[in-house]
Amino acid sequence: MDRVDEAIGGGARLLARLDRASTTQVVADALRERILDGQLRSGSQCQELQLTAALGVSRNTLREAFQILIAERLLVREPHRGVFVRRLEAADVRDIYAVRRLIECAALAAPASTRGLPEMQAAVETAHAAAARGDWYEVGNADVRFHLAITASVGSARVDRTMRALLAELRLAFQLMADAHALHEPFLGRNQQLVEMLEQRRPVEASIELAGYLDDAEQLLLATLTPVEP
After folding, report:
1. For 90-225, CATH number?
2. What is the pTM of this model?
């Protein structure tokens, strides 16, 4: 009987740990989304009291979620100060774009499905509508959805998670540019062009175009992050 009770108790503890782990992941996902859509900005402090109240979780759960995002290089813990949203440096941007070229260009060149195309089309429409009303913040959000849709065609949950983490990290660099119009306007038409190439079943050409597109986007960000020599 004691062994049965012990087994039941052990199973209950395991379920409790699994439930806690899943809650922590949900909180980490929610924080990542706040970074992705610009609610948590580069260099800002993550206020524990505000976030526990907003997310309805304990401090322990929030701190465990922080650890996940610290490992993803979205947050950083500063001794005696707290947890902050990271500020990206030029080396971070170069590394992110190197990974993006590998994933996104391959996804366009040989898509496993057409799953991402309707999402890309919708993102382009949203971006143009937002640009027409001068809402460049929403244009940026639509651009993130556009690039997530590119890799959705791979049909891999792991690739999807990788891209969300990459684009959340990249959004931190976007926030360092004071002029969102200058950041996003040059790529509105290029996103439309990529959609048209895919509609015309020209995936390899779309992949080549995207490689140049990512080169230009990287240089635009680096010009902001890299100090000009006197």
Report:
1. 1.20.120.530
2. 0.77
Residue 42 phi/psi, 5-degree rounding, is -55, 130
| CATH assignment of 2-85, among 3.40.50.720, 1.10.10.10, 3.30.450.20, 3.40.50.2300 | 1.10.10.10
Residues 6+ apart with CB under 8 A from 56: none
Q: What is the pLDDT along the chain (230 residues), one digit of tens a residue?
A: 444 344 334 444 433 444 555 888 888 989 988 887 778 888 899 999 999 999 888 999 999 999 999 998 899 999 989 999 998 889 999 999 999 999 999 999 998 888 889 999 999 999 999 999 999 989 988 999 999 999 998 999 999 989 988 888 888 888 877 788 988 999 999 999 999 999 999 999 999 999 999 999 999 999 887 654 44
